[in-house]
Amino acid sequence: MVKAPEDKDYVQSLERGLAVIHAFTDHGPHLTLAQLAQATGLSRPTVRRVALTLERLGYLRTDGREFALTPRVLSLGDAYLSSLKLTEVAQPHMENVTKVTGHTCSMAVLDGDDAVFVTRVPSRQVMRHTLTTGTRLPAYATSMGRVLLADLPDHELDAFLARAPFPRLTASTKVTAEELLSALSTTRARGWTLVDQEFEEGVRSFSAPVRDARATTVASLSMSVRADELSVDKIHHELLPVVSEAAVEISKQLGAPGS
């Protein structure tokens, strides 16, 4: 065990839970409490409490004598593996989008109330702001954010909308719960969204969802263009189909059903 006694931020119970899970890696698929105690260096009463907690949470199962891992343990690494695979799968499709359209193609995920860039393929087009991987933008006012919000479970979306009204960033920004719910309902129905100068004057952005094997929207594929150069009609007919098709192809490779 590696606990630093002076570290007040260190959660020892979490360390103990992970130690019990990792014990199965080196000591076999079925272990008794005594074997778990020996493998982890924890006392038997402590191991018993940890093991029973993990059983209640669905990570362990027991026949009354021995404990074993359940498939739910796989979910612990799912987020990391999914994100890694996501960017690797997306990269060539995004490069093609940028090559075909001449505009930067971006991918974002939802983190709290923000859309966060996870990868971008830049073009030579110059925009007012240079956005990089890790940049956070408010989900309510951006196309990439709305695509992600639109797929939230109803209770999560209700909690998000309960925080409205949001700051008005331009004269066009939708800020009330009613406005945003209407926009998100339209996004759900269409399978894409276009935000016209709501985050920044003079900039139009549009996005399509990227889905995983569970048909869950895990990211948004997006593009931003200058409003004085590209009309909404031209975006609909020339650029949006390219972005949407790329999102579908990425989703297919992630195992999305029906893509």
Annotated CATH homologous superfamily of the largest domain: GAF domain
Tell me how many strands there are: 9
The percent range for strand residues is 15-25%
Number of helix segments?
Answer: 8
* Biggest sheet strand line-up: 6-5-4-9-8-7
Q: Enumerate the spans where pLDDT stays under 50 for 5 or more consecutive residues.
A: none
| CATH architectural arrangement of the largest domain | 2-Layer Sandwich
CATH fold assignment of the largest domain: Beta-Lactamase
Q: Indicate the overall shape.
A: elongated
Structural class comes to: alpha+beta
User: Alpha-carbon distance between the termini?
Assistant: 47 Å
Mean pLDDT: 91
Mind telling me the CATH class of the largest domain?
A: Alpha Beta
Order of helices and strands: HEHHEEHEEEHHHEEEH
Q: What share of the residues lie within helices?
A: 40-55%
Counting copies of identical and different chains, the oligomeric state is single chain
Structural domain count: 2
InterPro entries: GAF-like_dom_sf, HTH_MetabolicPath_Reg, PcaR_PcaU, Tscrpt_reg_IclR_C, Tscrpt_reg_IclR_N, WH-like_DNA-bd_sf, WH_DNA-bd_sf
Domain IclR-ED: 72-256
Organism: Prauserella isguenensis
Function: May be an activator protein for the gylABX operon.
